[in-house]
Amino acid sequence: MRVLLTGAGGFIGGVLRRRLDGHELTATGRRPGPGLSVLDLSDAAAAARLVRECRPQAVVHAGAVSKIEPCEADPEGTAAVNVAATGALARAAAEVGARFYFLTTGQVHAGDSPPYVDDAPGAPLHAYGRQKAQAEGLVLDAGGPALVLRVSLCYGFAQDGAPPNFCDELRAAFRAGRTVRAFSDQRRSMLSVDDAAELVARAVESGLPPDGRRRLNLAGPEPVVRSDFALAFAEAFGFPPALVSVSGSRGMLAAPRPADCSLDGRRLWDWTGFRPKGYRAGVRALVE
Ligand SMILES: NC(=O)c1ccc[n+]([C@@H]2O[C@H](COP(=O)([O-])OP(=O)(O)OC[C@H]3O[C@@H](n4cnc5c(N)ncnc54)[C@H](OP(=O)(O)O)[C@@H]3O)[C@@H](O)[C@H]2O)c1
């Protein structure tokens, strides 16, 4: 299958790129890298042009400004990437008849009425969530075959030059004997990045859900608060739990976070025939 992947230099995109390697893959990133074509998503017209040139059968859109603070600090600049480019890519995919798979976030929800089903309407608390919710609408209105995947918080170590993430930071701090603050008021259906990529790849290879659903949650089976995840991580790696300083996040972050974004991911597991690991097993697998 001819597949165009954006965000291939990122955390999930990097793993997806390896998983989709058997396909005729055009992998794009913001910066050049081995096997990566450069695509700057702040240029929506260039993004659409690339789709028309490649004429893929599937577009997997994993490129984004994925952190909350930069979206809060520069909502317009980041919307060019998170909203405008997503809409342009989805419309170009519709033009060439490609299926479009969009990685959005469980943080389109306010976090006050979990667990969220696949089609639950969003009520975002921050700019990043609002951008993703708006982009979901553009994808579904583009007129082509499309699937919106609402991704929950993924964990794992950064690979292939992707920037360090919270697991890398936890491990580095614990190794140095430093205490790490971990929030007790954010619950997420966390899943390993490998399992997330496997679910995306299986969706791409399966087509579109036979029940006609156009939004599916991509989530782990065992919602967990971030501080419990950090404690499980410390335990699995043999570090003292006292290195985890548990606290609430109120007043500590530039943008408020939804409290509980637990997502019901069963439809995607059933359709793709793949059930991700719970976080305890996932953390143990990181040690091996
Ligand atoms: N990881 C999670 O837990 C999680 C949870 C929910 C949803 N998601 C969503 O899943 C998708 C993939 O997430 P991720 O964790 O892999 O994020 P990531 O590591 O930040 O990867 C996103 C990639 O997009 C690239 N990008 C940003 N701006 C760009 C631009 N102007 N032009 C071209 N590329 C640009 C980034 O490049 P730079 O590194 O150069 O900035 C990065 O390589 C995103 O849509 C994210 O919002 C992720």
Summarize the structure in words.
- There is one protein chain.
- This protein is 40% helix and 18% strand.
- It is of the alpha/beta class.
- The protein has two domains: 182 residues, NAD(P)-binding Rossmann-like Domain (Rossmann fold, 3-Layer(aba) Sandwich); 73 residues, UDP-galactose 4-epimerase, domain 1.
- It has a seven-stranded parallel sheet with strand order 3-2-1-4-5-6-11, sandwiched between helices. The protein has a three-stranded mixed sheet with strand order 12-9-14. Strands 7-10 form a two-stranded parallel ribbon.
- It is globular.
- The two termini are 33 Å apart.
- It binds NADP nicotinamide-adenine-dinucleotide phosphate (NAP).
What are the salient characteristics of this protein?
288 residues, single chain, 18% strand, 40% helix, seven-stranded parallel β-sheet, alpha/beta, 10 helices, Rossmann fold, UDP-galactose 4-epimerase, domain 1
* Bound compounds: NADP nicotinamide-adenine-dinucleotide phosphate
Looking at this structure, what is the CATH superfamily of the largest domain?
Answer: NAD(P)-binding Rossmann-like Domain
Low-pLDDT runs: none
Which class best fits the helix and strand makeup? alpha/beta
CATH-defined topology of the largest domain: Rossmann fold
Gross geometry: globular
